[in-house]
Design a protein that fits this description.
Layout (H helix, E strand, L loop, with lengths): L11 E10 H19 L2 H8 L4 H19 L12 E5 L5 E5 L1 H10 L3 E8 L3 E9 L1
Antiparallel strand pairs: 1-5, 2-3, 4-5
């Protein structure tokens, strides 16, 4: 199946969306502990999530955001883009923001993007995120 082309002249150069069950992320944390956390989440992300009364939905939302970034970039996860190449933190007003590693910044440049917008949402059992790359 061929993905639809983004129209010429449009300032959107990539879109990714992901949804995950909170329980899947919590199970991975329970089974693999620190190994899973340090493989997928930066220390700042872990600090933010652990500060919450129920960390699971917050971890799951960030997990979904990283998946959405990989889809927006068109790379998936692998040598080009890894879990720690995108960090999902909150801005001054509490809004989610994506901070990119130098490697991911290069992918953004190759894609023609100058900025990434991210939205997170979660319930007790499900978390979702959408990422839009713009120029």
């Amino acid at each position: 199946m061929k993905m639809p082309e983004i129209p010429e002249g449009c300032n959107v150069v990539g879109v990714g969306i992901d949804q995950i069950e909170v329980e899947r992320v919590q199970d991975s944390i329970s089974r693999h502990g620190a190994h899973f956390l340090t493989k997928v989440f930066t220390s700042k992300e872990q600090e933010y999530c652990q500060d919450k009364a129920n960390a699971g939905p917050h971890y799951a939302a960030r997990f979904a955001a990283k998946e959405a970034v990989s889809k927006a970039l068109g790379t998936g996860f692998g040598k080009k883009f890894g879990w720690l190449d995108a960090e999902i933190l909150n801005g001054e007003a509490g809004e989610p923001q994506i901070y990119f590693s130098p490697k991911a910044t290069e992918l953004l440049t190759q894609k023609g993007a100058t900025r990434a917008l991210v939205s997170l949402t979660h319930l007790e059992s499900i978390a979702s995120s959408i990422v839009i790359l713009i120029k």
